[in-house]
Amino acid sequence: MPPRLARKPLNTYHHGDLRDALVHAALVEAEQGGPEAVNLKALAKKLGVSQPAPYRHFADRKALLEAVTAEVFRQFSATLRQSIAKPSKRSKLSRLAQATLAFGLRRNGIYRLMFASRTMACAPKGSELHNAAMQTFGLLLEALEAPAIGLIRERHALKIWAALHGVVMLAEQGLLTGQAAQMSREELVEDIVAETKLSLSVAIKEAGGDRVTR
């Protein structure tokens, strides 16, 4: 009788599958506990592989977090792209801003990985993460619906991005109830959108642009 072949455990991975499995598993951990929850040894145990196995795909935890963050930026971009693509009486900027608020509050662990950790800041230009983040920023520029005159669009994009980030982080910490001004977080975001569009329109006119934002 020929020797019986050993059966592979159900949680083993073929060559090339483990990288994606690690990214997915790390994303789940970050979703629940933020970037601090991601641990390579714990992920290896969870996936049923040897502790050295993850290092064949990622040099260290930092490299894994960069891959996870790039994936999340792609998901974020897909959400924003969908929000500005569907027909609506509201401006693209309004839809994108509200989608950003909703994403940040609903997926705060992931949001903190994207915007409240050193992962994005340390990503080199041209890297997978940098390119994914720039695609997201490109959607914000598109949502401004303004002509490219100097760096006017980019500066206004950075201003509203910073403002939206402040709203998300303060709201997540329970420090932005809106009671003092009797307004909701969504209403605050709409005010930020309106002020951004007005400021952008004025800046374009002063720069001699022949088209104003809508």
Terminal Cα span: 79 Å
Strand content: under 5%
Give the overall shape.
globular
* Main beta-sheet annotation: none
The number of strands is 0
How many helical stretches? Answer: 9
SSE pattern: HHHHHHHHH
Low-confidence stretches: 1-11
Task: Kindly name the structural category.
Answer: mainly alpha
Average predicted local confidence, pLDDT: 89
Helix content: 55-70%
Radius of gyration: 21 Å
List its traits.
mainly alpha
Characterise the protein shown here.
By secondary structure, the chain is mainly α. It has 9 helices and no strands. It has helices spanning 17-33, 40-47, 61-85, 92-106, 108-115, 118-121, 128-143, 152-172, 185-206. The longest helix is centred in the middle third of the chain and has 25 residues, at 61-85. It is globular. The termini are far apart. Residues 1-11 have low confidence and may be disordered.
